[in-house]
Amino acid sequence: MSAVGELVEMASRRKRGGAKEKHPDNKAGLVFMTPWLLGFLGITLLPMIASLGLAFTDYSLLAPPEFVGLDNIREMIADTRLHNSLVVTFIYVFLGTPLQLIVALALAVVLNQGMRGLAFYRSVFYLPSLLGASVAIAILWRQMFGANGLVNQLLGALGFTGMPGWVSNPDTALGTLILLNVWTFGSPMIIFLAGLRQIPQMYYEAASVDGASKVKQFFTITIPLLTPIIFFNVVLQIINSFQTFTQAFVVSGGTGGPSDSTMFFTLYLYQKGFAQFDMGYASAMAWLLLIIVAIFTAINFFVSKFWVFYDD
After folding, report:
1. pTM summary value
2. What residue stretches are annotated with the ABC transmembrane type-1 domain (predicted)?
3. For the chain, N or C: smaller number of CB within 10 Å?
């Protein structure tokens, strides 16, 4: 056998041996994935399929579900409180999300300047994201923006009198929840900071040599190279905002008041399903929310090709 033939034979044996060694790794991977697969099937997929079936039934939890066809969909079309909850949710999403991301990006840019104690500041600024969705912070927020809360006390010390209870006023109640959402900027800020650290410094050095100001560098270098991170944060925060529940429930006392001004879609879904025991209607609402989130996510992915810049 020639030397070339021997090399081909050795490569073939090595290839066959490598193929045999892959099977134990695959089995081990499946073993480690088993808990996740069981959780996905038992906690996510099967309940979703069950809720899809319940969406076409009249189900009160106290009696067997009764098939009603499209009655729940017709009821949603005529439900004015549902329409109002969608309007409130859209306002919250499309005002709160951009403001939150602007604040997060601004602080990420500041933290990226190489200041001392960066790890400490990063942890402090991330803390609101961990606490913002908690019941304790929502209760604190309600107290702060109450008629006799800390905010009005500070305004009173500055000479302002007759200030309203912000959470009890229909004109300002939703604004306090938007402000709470903006305050939980820590998670997108950390992601922005990681993205800023990946931008090569040579681009800024070349721009400085050409006489570009810091503002021009920000809009011509930072923003274009950061667009994948911005896109990721936009999609993630819009999905999270549509699912907001705890803040509205606690601040409004579970009523969505005053005058349904904080009646988020998720809160109205909760009221229908667990307060009025209309689980069939609540299931239909849940699927409507899924469709709305899917539509906005698809729109974001479609539009992203016009403004998101990738290296390739």
Report:
1. 0.85
2. 86-300
3. C
